[in-house]
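User: Hi! Is it possible to get a structure for several chains at once, not just one? Here's what I have:
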Amino acid sequence: MSVRVRVPTPLRKFTQGVDEVNAQGVNVKALVDDLEKNYPGIKERICDESGKVRRFVNVYVNGDDIRFLQNMETALKEGDNISIVPAIAGGR
Amino acid sequence: MSFVTGLQCRECGQKYPQEPLHVCELCFGPLEIQYDYPAITAKINRETIASRERNLWRYRELLPIDGEPRVGLYSGFTPLVRAHRLGETLGVKELYVKDDSVNHPSFSYKDRVVSVAISKAIEFGFDTVSCASTGNLANSVAAHAAKAGLNCYVFIPDGLEQGKIIGSAIYGPKTVAIKGNYDDVNRLCTEIGDKYGWAFVNVNLRPYYSEGAKTHGFEVAEQLGWKLPKHIIVASAGGTILPKLAKGFKELAKVGLVEDTGCKIYSAQAAGCAPIIQALHKGTDLVSPVKPNTIASSIAIGNPADGYYVIQAVKESGGWGESVTDEEILDGIKLLARTEGIFTEPAGGTEVAVTKKLIESGRVPRDESIVISITGNGYKTLEVVAQSVEKPYTIDATLENFDQLFHRLALTESVTAVG
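Assistant: Yes, the chains can be modeled jointly so their relative placement is included. Here is the combined structure:
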């Protein structure tokens, strides 16, 4: 089972500059572990010491923020699109 | 010349040179501009500032540009209105309205941040400027881009008020409406910025952009005779302006322009989108995102990245925060219009209504100086209030017709007065 992951600029040094990679995982937690296996060092940029997504990182599954789903336990299926996005603000 | 020494991560302290960067590569924390304050202290004083043009660049030593300002030469220095009638209604002694609804050129506080961001974009050599916006920012970016002759793309959620859409389109940018809410727009823009290499004012130029918000506070202090107000109330959406007011006030003290007498800062949100207030009231600094549902579209940001810093700044200042219902927001808009003759959008109605609530609950005392920061203009959001104001009386062009109407109205007035 494979999903597509969009990699933001600050993490591309781990993926040799590639902006989109394939990865495996039944849920987001497993996905992050799989990314770590192929791109060592990437996990600690996404997650804090307790394994939770960092305060300034947003993770989206098919455009939905995982904090509205089941966080790290959010289940994944073949072909899902994952985005890892720095939490920036602005607007108005 | 610039007094900027570089960028630094607010979270882990990692330092970076002055580049179009906005997040720390190590921890994704936001980057903050660093200045050489001793050098600034030696360079400016109240007199030098007073001798300069009345625009936001009069505080340029505390803004992150290297050369001459490129845009925003008429932005900022909006009125600080002594609000006697509103103050009387709310039962407070010294009330002011900082009126960014008449900011140049696009009638919102956003002309401040955009002036700085686009000046910086030109310094960095970008030819295309862009933004993710709930409307006001798009208006401002489009206007400033037109003046500077830059290419412009603005991204907004679909379903915005006409005034906000046309208020961008008239300047000739490419306007892209995204099916979804602001948070969807924001996420997409981060990805587009990455891919296309444009200057997204509130994404990759964010550290520069947000510094412009300080000028709102600088002006309040200068207009009060180089004094900080005791209390200031401002709406929070993405959370840019509030922490920057706090930073700006501290900087003024640091460079010797004001005495640090302390200013309590209060956050205002709409009840239909109040992730920051919910966290504040719960006593946590962990802001949980919400799905916005409010008429206050300009502050309908459910996932405010700077929410954490809003809470930090509010707590550190000794302030507080409140949220108000859409009905209270409409009442707030009308109250400001009918006591001070200032027509604001729902974000401003939120600020007025929250101020009322904070005064009534005793959080804000009645005998100290209070400033309400009005950040946007009501002429852009006419739909929102269209149903809650009186319709015109249509009559034939005869004096007799008007006499009848006048008597009818006078009767209704007296009935209302008695009742």
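Chain B touches chain A through 55 residues (CB under 8 Å). Chain B has a mean pLDDT of 94.

User: Great, thank you!
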